[in-house]
Structure formats: structure tokens, C-alpha cells
Amino acid sequence: MKEYILGSVIMFLNKVKLNGLFGIFNHEINLNNEGISIVIGENGVGKTYLLEAINSLFNLKLDFFTNFDFKDMVCEFDDDVKWVVKKIEEEERAFVSICEYSQTKRINFQKMPLVKNLSALEVRKQASQIALNVPTLERLGVTRYLDRSNNRVLTATDVANEYSDMLIFDENNEYNREIESWILERITHNKTRLIETQRIYTFVNNEGVGYSETIMRYALDLSLSISSIENKYSHESSKLDESFPYRLINKIRKDRKNDENNTSKLESLSEALLELDERRSQLKKIGLLTNEDSKKIQKGDIGLAQEAIELYIEDSNEKFDVYKELQTKISLFLKIINKRFSHKKLQIDKEKGFIFKQLFDSGIDEHEIPVRRLSSGEKNELILFYDLLFKSDDVKLVLIDEPEISLHVSWQSLFIKDIQDIHDLNGINVLIATHSPDIIGGNWHLTNELGKSKER
To answer: What is the pLDDT of residues 259-314, one digit of tens each?
Structure first.
């Protein structure tokens, strides 16, 4: 498991205990140091509630606990610190308390009011403060807001619940002082993201009438990411091109004073040109470069403009470095999706983000398939892996509820290997709740079984 450090102390979450769930169950899970942990259990034992409780705590969306039936939740960290989280009822008001222990000694304590128990005026003040820090929120009235990121109309309570992290982490608003630094620091280093079972649709208003398809939003999101990277590439190119003549002159002066081993240098430049051409080809292959053509330079001609070619290689590699992170993610994304989808091929498109082509046995007459026409299983897979690769950069633990939804058994058997590849790429840790032995495959050593009640 990837290390997250505060100062010199490793402080990531390694165990969660949820006691008295529904008044019946005591659950305990260990987060595996291989980056992947699995929760299994019968229907009704609270797998989903466990994931939601972890996600709510580590995103400080504490209103979840208002109607949550539990005794306490214990979170243990790798620096021998643990939190005990409880709900406290006091004179018709409710609070969430976090008590921090170092080994057995209590070192910190704080209780925080639940949003639903705040007065209407306090909720409106919170929503107003949040709207100042979220560019996509537009105030429509005293208690209503438009979220332009998804065209949802929100109440003040919705804003306080859904964007509570923006309220808490803003140093300039009055509510920031209500959350003590020891909580903020540890939560910052253990931020989570929940991928729910219902992934295909995003509801666009409070009544759930009307929706948008997540896959369409993600296609647009990738298009915008590519556009942003292209702008950076253009900026980097302009900067390097503008200074090229001056840097070339300085390089010629320097190299001609120290001209030694010219033969070996020419050989090295020839190899560097081949590597550059290969790098350009890979970017063109996945759709990130379209108009970037390069004429082949013959090995025997390199000496005619040695310094210019050497500088050209350096500049080109520096420009291509702008694409490096996105290229790595897209390459893995294409690999994961295209080994699953039969008779279809995922391709990257700068304007649309991604598109699918129908493949025929003859290998000709390919045509584009509207993304909306993918099956539910295909949409679930694409959304899930896009979420892991492109939407979880600031997250330390991704919680996935029932990844087997709508998936053929052959796809389920590939899942853990692909998750491991993503972990190896970005260090992200994953906790999976599943019913499927095909998802688990030969990885039973990663599982935590739930279902034992207090009476057992």
C-alpha cells in the first residue's frame, strides 16, 4: 500500500471496525498492503453501509450518520493512532464525535453538529459560504442554488451536505475553525471516493426526475482534459521555439570549443532520433497527436546540422513530456476496455473524448457506434475504470460497491488483475464489496468476510 506521510509519520488507514451495525453486527476489515482489499458477505449484512460510512467520514460528509444505526466505528492507522467515531444525542440535537487515541491514551476529542440538526439560518450561512468557493454554484434565491456542473437545482441543505468539504477546507471562512487541525490533517491524507452500484445515470434534480448519462459526461471530461493538455503543449512549444535560435547559437559555440568524440555523438543522436520517432508514433496511435509529422533524417546527414538536431531532440522530448501522464492513463484505459469489448474498439477522439467503432470479421467497413448504444455491462465497466484512472487523482482509497453488476463472468475474472495494474500505475488503494467468487478468483487472501452478529 502506498505510503502517505504527515511530517515524518506514516498515517494511512489500515483497519476499520464497525460495531453494533443495525444493533446486530460487528464488522472488522483489514486494508491489504498489496493495495487491494475485498469485503464479502451475504445480502443484508451491511457491506454497502460499511463503504458509505468510511466514505462519509473521510470526506467529512457527516450528515450521513444522522440516521445511521450503529454503536461506534473504529479506524486504526499505521502510526498506532486510532479514532473512535460515535453519534451523540443531546437535548434534541445530534453530534458526531471523534475521539483520538495513541495506543491506549486519549489525546484528542471533538464533537461536530450534524447538518440536519443545525438551525435553518445556520444551514443557509453554510451554503452561502460554500457557494463563494465553488465556481459552478449559482445562487437562485435564499435557499436554492443551481449547480452548473450537472444542471441540478439544490436546496441550501443539499449544498451543505454535498459540498461540506469545500466549507471545511477553506481557511478564510468562519466554519473552518470548528474542525480541529488533527482531524483535517489525517482526513487529507486518507481521502476516499465511493463508486456506487448505480453508476450509469446521474440524477439532475432533487426529485430524481430527469437524468444524464455518466458515460456522456466522462466523454466530455476526457475531451476537456485533452484540450487542456494541448494548450499546455502549445504554450511549451511557443516558449521553446521562441528561444531556439539563441539556444542554438550558444550550443554551437560551446560544442565547437569542446569537440571530442564526434563519431560516438553522431551515433547517439541517430539512436535518439529513432526513439523520438517512436515516441511520436505512440502519441499518434492513441489519438493525442494528429498533425505532428516528422521527415526522416538520414544517419549520414546528421553531421550537417548536429547541434540543431541535438537541440531539436531535446525540445521535442520536453514538449512530449506534457502528454506523459495523460498518455499513460489513456494507454492503460484502452488496453483494459479493448480486451473486454467484443466486435467493438474504443478509440480516443479529441472532439468527443472517446468513441467506439464496430468491428467486422472482414476488417473493413468499420463505423462509429453511438456511446449511448453500449450495453449496460459495457457502460458499467467503462465508467468504473474511467473513474479509477481519471477521476481519483487526489484520492487515497477508492471504495467500489459490487463491481460485478451487469458483467459477464469472463469480464469478472479479469477485474482484480486490472485493478492491480491501476494500483501499480498510480498507487491508488481499492476496497471492493462483492458477492462474486469470479471477481475474487484466486485472491481469497485479500478477503474480509462479514456477517457475524454480536450473539455469535
So the answer is: 666 667 778 888 888 898 899 899 999 989 876 666 666 666 666 688 888 899 99
Quote the CA–CA distance of 192 and 389 in Å, as a whole number: 14
Amino acid 209: pLDDT: 40
**What's the pTM value of the predicted model, to 2 decimals?**
0.80
Task: Compute φ and ψ for 399, nearest 5 degrees.
Answer: -105, 120
Pairing of strands 397-401, 429-434: parallel
- Which three-class secondary structure state does DSSP give residue 455? coil
- Among 120, 116, 151, 146, smallest CA distance to 131 is for 146
- Residue ranges covered by each domain of the chain: 229-324
Helix and strand counts by DSSP (H, E) for the chain: 13, 21
Residues 143-153 as b or e (16 or more Cβ within 10 Å = b): bbbebeeeebe
Q: Which amino acid appears at position 48 of this protein?
A: T
> Which strands form 25-30's sheet, in the order they lie side by side?
25-30, 13-21, 72-77, 81-90, 93-102, 105-113
Question: What residues pair up with 193 in beta bridges, in sequence order?
Answer: 398
* Cβ–Cβ under 8 Å, residues 112 and 96: yes
CB atoms within 10 A of CB 339: 10
Cell numbers standing for residue 399: 471504495
Strand segments (E) across 92-209? 93-102, 105-113, 137-139, 144-147, 152-155, 192-195, 201-203
Q: What is the pLDDT of residue 456?
A: 41
**pLDDT, the chain, mean:** 85
> In this prediction, what percent of the chain has a pLDDT beyond 70?
85
